Amino acid sequence: MPMTERDIVLTTDEAIEYLKISKPTFLMYIRLGRIKAIKAGEGWRILQSELYRFLKGEEQVGSRNQEKM
Fold first, then answer.
1. Which is nearest to 35 in space by CA: 17, 52, 11?
2. Can you list the positions of beta strands (E) in 6-61?
3. Residue 19 is part of which domain span?
4. What CA–CA distance (Å, rounded) separates 23 from 63?
5. CA–CA gap between residue 11 and residue 63 (Å, rounded)
6. Edge-to-edge strand order for the sheet containing 38-40?
7. Is residue 4 in a domain?
8. 8 CB contacts (<8 Å, ≥6 apart)?
9. Which SS3 state, helix, strand or coil, does residue 40 take?
10. Which of 26, 27, 32, 68 is the most buried (most CB within 10 A)?
């Protein structure tokens, strides 16, 4: 899903609260490329539309996440 004007950027804590999962599970999904995120400072930034895509079970367009933890 492309970023829209109304897309919201979430922090790591906001994303794990939104998904109702643990932080280690969230970080594993990023590492495996199941959730696309960007490392920013000490944490990660994730578009809300990306979490919605993940919850719907849709595959990511393109290859694995290139970020390293």
1. 52
2. 9-11, 38-40, 43-47
3. 9-56
4. 23
5. 23
6. 9-11, 43-47, 38-40
7. no
8. 47, 48
9. strand
10. 26
